[in-house]
Structures are given as structure tokens and as C-alpha cells.
Amino acid sequence: MSLVNYNTVRMVDSPVIKKMRYYGKHVPVPTDTDYDLMVIDHCLTRGVRVAPLPIDVQRNRLSWIGFEKEIYYPETMFKWSSDSVNVPELWALSFKYFEQMQNMITHDFAEKLSQVRSQHIKNFFTDSLIYRQVSHEKHAFVFGIAHRDPSRISYLTFPKLSSMCLHQQDQIDYINNDNFMTEICNVDLRKRLCMMASPYKLFELHNFNHSNREAEELANILNMQNILDSYYIEIEEDVKKYMHQDSYSSEWEGHGGEYTGTLGSGCMRYDRSQEFLDIYQDNEHCKILVMKDQNGGIVARAILWQNVNIHRRVKTINIMDRIYTLRNAYEPIMIKWAKDNGYHYKRQQSYNSAVLINPDTGKESRGQVRIPIEWQDYDKLPYIDTYCNIYPELGFMSNSSRVKPESGNTTRHIARHTDGYYQTTNNYA
Known about the structure:
Blueprint: E1 3-11, H1 15-22, E2 37-43, E3 47-52, H2 54-58, E4 78-88, H3 89-96, H4 98-101, H5 107-113, H6 119-126, H7 128-131, E5 141-145, E6 153-156, H8 158-167, H9 169-172, H10 180-183, H11 187-193, E7 195-197, H12 199-205, H13 212-222, H14 224-228, E8 232-236, H15 239-243, H16 261-264, H17 278-281, E9 286-292, E10 298-310, E11 317-325, H18 331-340, E12 344-346, E13 356-357, E14 364-365, E15 369-372, E16 389-391, E17 396-398, E18 409-414, E19 423-428
């Protein structure tokens, strides 16, 4: 068993300490009471390192804050007690390795966190020195995915550890210095040892400044598996069919549901828009990715561009264009599909962003994308988010308005109207 016998000490009530207490000044040891402290390390040259007893933390008689710092005090500040205490080694090790544990996350949570785009949110979990300093009793550390509810985050706190050390010693008596850093990430142990909270609650607990969208993105990623159990993703050929609102899920407000989102308010969903979409339907490089509910209604969609070029690069790529969803929760699932299937995807899901993310490296890709087309003298064009610059004489559409012909001039159509009309101009060499 890893119940260890620890010596106990108590602060010497010297005239200097009495005076400091009287004037309300900071006492070197982070307590102004006469409770026993356990000695977790004793060095002849450095002094003693102490920690509060689990029972005092559990009963809110003594704060653990301050003891987590690796500070050794002179022996002369204490008087040694004749009593000793048997405490699970887990308790002392939590103080000993506290600083190393601050940026620890479990492997499964690390995989989820890698999908988060906000570096600010990532820093909360991986840069505690700046983003998550100790400021309250329920300070969280060593993060993972909660076993009972994968949409929540599990974490350690000293109040919970103190309760385990007092009331469930048999569950943690095997933990020692050799296996401690491994076991605190063990799924079975964390079921009993950890608290759990939603990202929103966790950030609120630490007064972490963040946007609602950043927290929502992490929550959606954590909830991804629950969503995948009820939906499926397919590539479809019939772009017109799945751009039309008749293909929408019953979750859409227009079909009696609760959600609208970017999909439900899309400007190309109407009957009158169908004739505008021929440029998609006729293009062999164009497909549509749809996420469907169990009844086949779509909750998210994105145009796919297959085997297209980036100017001055030899290798062709596949691109997933802007994602439209009924709920933001579906966006991370579509992005994960793009990563898993080798499709570049947009860094921001908006009409005015053309920066792509490489699915293999995660790095940003900027360049002049050229999508081959065979111009059919279209009378009308759809509102096109990203590749709205169409060069019929050069045979491609692009995100760039600055394409120059080798000589003379070339026609450029700009497809940015919701009524099917488009602007025509010329680019010059």
C-alpha cells in the first residue's frame, strides 16, 4: 500500500510571526493558523517543504494555495510534532509535481484539442503560466474527456483529491512515485478522481476571457461523436437537388424545426435559383458534400472541387468550399471529413476568405486556385462564395480577380449577385 507515514510540524509562534499576524502582514508559510502541516520533503541544506493535511483542505480549514509552489522553509520556522500521519502518497505527489501537471492533457483530449482553430483556447489548457494561473480553491489541472459524458471535460482539483485521500484510500493506495504521472491519465482512475464540466463552465470557473464562438467550437468538437451516431455524410452528384431547400432536414425552421443557420438562410435555396446552378451541374470537377439525418434531410452541405490547380504548382488538389450548416455543431464534423479524405478546406467559413488549410500538414495555403470550366454562354450564374471570378476565354474560375492574359485582354465575369445576374469586365496583360 502507498499509505506513507509523514512527520508533522507546526509554525513556531515567535514574536516576529505574532507581530506579522497582528498587523495583517503576509506570513511566509501560506497559513496564519496553528494547524499541523505534513512534511513532504526534508533537506538539510534547503530546509523543509510542507503541505496541509487532506482533512484540513476537505473541511475548508486550510487553503492548499501557496503550498503547491516548490518552496523550502528554514526548519527554525517550525516545531516538530511527536505525532505523524498516514496519508496516501498521491496527496504528497500532487504537490510535488504540481507545476509539471499544469499543462498535462490526456491523449484523447489532445486529439480533440488539435481540431480547435483558436490558439487562445488551446493556450488555456497548455500554457497555464499565462492563461490559467492559480487563483481559487477549485483550480483545475490535468484535463481529459469525461468518461460518463464525452461532451464534457474531466479535470483534477485539490478538494476532490482530498476527499479521495480521506474516504476512498483503497482506490488510490497503489499509486506511488513510479506510476503517478501515468496513472493520473488512466481512464479508470479518472472516473473516480476527476470533476467534469462543460467548456463554458470551465472557462467561467477560471474567469477566462474568451468569445462564445471559441467555446462553442470546442463544445461542438467534444460532442462530435454523439452527433455522428445520428447523421451520415455522403458525396452527391446532383448539386441542384441539394442546394434546394426541399432537401433540408426537418430540423430547419422552414420545415417546422428549431434551426436556421447559414444553410437555412442560404440565398441559393429557392426555386428561382435552380436555373442559376448549371455552372455547377455541368462541371465534372464539381460535386456536393452533404450531411444527412436518418430521414435523408440535409443539415450541412459544401461544394467540392476535385482535381483543381493552384497556379504555378504541379500537383492538383481537392477542395471543400464554404460549409453551410443548420447548426454550428455540424461544422467540425464536415471539417474532420475533409481532413480524413484529403480535402483542403477554408480557414474561415465565409464568402470573403480564400485561405485554405492543408489537410496533411495543417498549414495555411494561399494561392490562385484555378478550377477548369467549359463555358456554355450561361445567361445567369449563382452567387459564388469563393471562386466567383470566371474567365470564360481562359477556361477556368478562380478566387483571384487579378489573372492576366499573356497578351491583350480577357473577359472576367463576377458572380456575386443573388438574382442570377453577373458583372462583366476585362483584365489586361
